[in-house]
Write a structure and sequence with these properties.
The protein is of the alpha+beta class. The protein has 8 helices and 19 strands. A 5-stranded antiparallel beta sheet has the order 1-2-5-4-13. The protein has a 5-stranded antiparallel beta sheet with strand order 3-14-15-12-11. Helix 1 runs antiparallel to helix 2, helix 1 runs antiparallel to helix 6 and helix 3 crosses helix 4.
Length: 376
């Protein structure tokens, strides 16, 4: 029988279990590895326009949110038909990040195939449906771009071909080969399900990593230090290792309008949503890549790494959040337009002290007080 603490409901939104925000039902669509096929982006764009507020919000876990969903059942049906809802029992726990450029630009190895294996294995284990919706898996291809996001369960590729198993964002000392990555991460997640009570993250569990390692009888050796969180995500024209081109773009406030999303779908190339609330259009020839920049930059895609929008982020703010003391996005937009945001530091603007959506690492907080903003 579940303990009283364990019975506390998980309020993390999903595609089936929406969150009633101040502006209406909020749906969150999990995208393992951040990957979206063109047809799936078209479905999301149409759903946002016809059932939501006309925008897609990129999240810090490479997922997408749709606000003010007028018909949650219709929304879920559209997702299922597009292959974006392969499980009704596990849909909120499919938070799987992978190095966004893996297999295309740099990295020690290609982790893309591990994403599919991890997602399939996660959905195949009934016990893992009890993971909290805040659980985070990460597959870092060795470049160290995901380690700083402090995943609950992660694999960090090493130069000798092994993978360091990360627990609560730190090296556990456990090493596995590529064939053991998926099963080990899933077993660690299963151990957390058994050990947790009211805790939502492994870091909240007393001696959580050590207890998980001990429970599974894993052998731990020396640990490596973790790279610092990424300050500036990949932005702009990126030459892929295979001779093609990837275009990495930022978005003001991490918000993608439905019309722009339809244009992205029309490019007919794979899309990757990153944990830095940016996106990547992959596998382009040079001439079409140039056309994409010329057409979509004026529509809101930011291909300039020097843009102030690349170093600032915000929570939803009013009117979407009832706890917010200000229309944070509008105020941040005005500050950027007035060139009032610094270009050499990261800022996160929040509508209250909860600081939702705050990125990891060294960040200057700008917090609404009801009579202005306080810089912390």
């Amino acid at each position: 029988m579940s303990s009283p603490e364990r019975s506390v409901p998980d309020g993390c939104p999903g595609a089936l279990t929406t969150h009633l925000a101040a502006d209406g039902p909020l749906a969150r669509v999990r995208l393992p590895g951040g990957v979206l096929l063109p047809g799936q982006m078209q479905v999301l764009a149409q759903a946002a326009a016809e059932l939501g507020d006309g925008t897609l919000e990129l999240t810090s876990r490479g997922n997408i949110q749709v606000r003010a969903v007028s018909d949650p059942d219709d929304f879920a049906t559209r997702l299922a038909d597009a292959g974006l809802l392969p499980s009704s029992t596990h849909e909120r726990v499919r938070n799987i990040l992978a190095s966004p450029l893996s297999g295309r630009v740099g990295g020690l190895t290609d982790v893309r195939a591990l994403v599919g294996g991890l997602d399939e294995g996660l959905r195949a284990r009934p016990d893992l449906a009890d993971l909290p919706g805040r659980t985070l898996f990460a597959l870092d291809d060795g470049r160290g771009d995901l380690c700083g996001l402090e995943p609950d369960f992660g694999a960090y590729a090493q130069s000798d071909g092994s993978y360091a198993v990360l627990l609560a964002g730190r090296d556990s000392g456990v090493r596995v080969d590529r064939d053991g990555v998926v099963s080990t991460l899933l077993d660690c997640a299963g151990a957390f399900v058994e050990l947790r009570q009211s805790q939502w993250r492994v870091a909240e569990l007393d001696d959580g990593p050590a207890r998980i390692v001990d429970r599974l009888g894993l052998s731990a050796g020396p640990v490596v230090s973790m790279p610092a969180p990424v300050e500036v995500p990949p932005i702009g024209w990126l030459d892929q290792d295979d001779g093609l081109v990837a275009l990495a773009a930022g978005l003001a406030n991490g918000v993608l309008g439905a019309r722009l999303a339809e244009f992205l779908a029309a490019i007919d190339r794979p899309l990757i949503m990153t944990p830095w609330r940016s996106l990547i259009v992959c596998d382009l020839d040079e001439e079409p890549a140039g056309q994409v920049v010329r057409v979509l930059a004026p529509m809101g895609l930011i291909f300039d790494a020097a843009s102030p929008w690349i170093r600032v982020s915000s929570c939803t703010g009013s009117p979407g959040c009832e706890k917010s003391l200000a229309d944070v996005r509008a105020d941040l937009s005005a500050a950027v337009d007035a060139r009032m945001t610094p270009r050499d530091e990261r800022q996160h603007w929040s509508g209250c002290e909860r600081r939702c959506g705050r990125p990891k690492g060294e960040v200057t907080d700008v917090i609404a007080t009801g009579i202005g903003y306080r810089v912390s």
